[in-house]
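Input/output pair, single chain:
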Amino acid sequence: MADEYTKMLAEGIKKLQATTTDDAIKREIVKQLIYKRADFISAGVKVVGVQQFDNLDIKYAMPSEASVEYPVPEGAGASLSLIDWTEFTFSMQKAEGRFMITDEARIRGVDNVQWQISIRRLGESLAYEKDKNILDTLINGAGNTFSASATWDTATASQITADIAKGLNYVMSAKGVVDSDINRVALVLPMKAWTGLLRVVEIGNINRSIRDFIEDGYGIQILPSKYLTTDAIMLVKGAETAIHAVLRPPAGIPLVEQKRHEGVGTEYIVRQFFNTKVIPESSSQTSSTNRICVIEDVAS
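Output:
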């Protein structure tokens, strides 16, 4: 995937340099390259995905629980009272960044370097803000929290696997989670805890990393995040746990603009509207879900 984006970036920059008159094409290329860079490296996006909406304000009612009545007598029907309705409301906010392609770089013929570095850096910054928004939302919306046995850079393999088993029991016991969802569980870790899992230990007379043992034995995905510092997040991946909403490009309102600075260069302004919301567990548990569990102090 990294090689795929590098290839995409190189091809996009060739198009940017070749396009000398159509500024709309340039803006669209810039937008796609930065958005894709951010989504590619964001740990938060990897675990909740992206859903596009046409409005900044999102409001609807959804069934947090629906029960099946059995047996239903002949000539009768199930009652709508078996559906537990939950109201879901939130609004997106704007993220914006800027970069410039200088006249001097174009004169020297090295503007492709400025394009590459600027797009990568702005994409990385956008990814960080997305992770900040998504991961903070997941932490605040966790239905269960407990402390790790020890920091994972020094803990034994048995201590780490005991912590993970405890977290799995919490998220797999959540309402609406089925047995096959074990294959959709993810663990997002601070970098220091993630590198601790790379230690090679002897497990069952086989030398292997703790990370490989956990991923193979438990079937969960492990992701590092530079945004997290001390706590880990375990969750069932997908839009049933949380929604990362992104505004679909609105007609007549540019999300990328360019501005000429006389004698200096061309500035590009890139923005995206987004926000994240945890799917409520029930009508009585409106701000959290047991599909998310926080393991505190896996790193120090």
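The first helix runs from residue 2 to 18. The CA atoms of residues 77 and 151 lie 55 Å apart.
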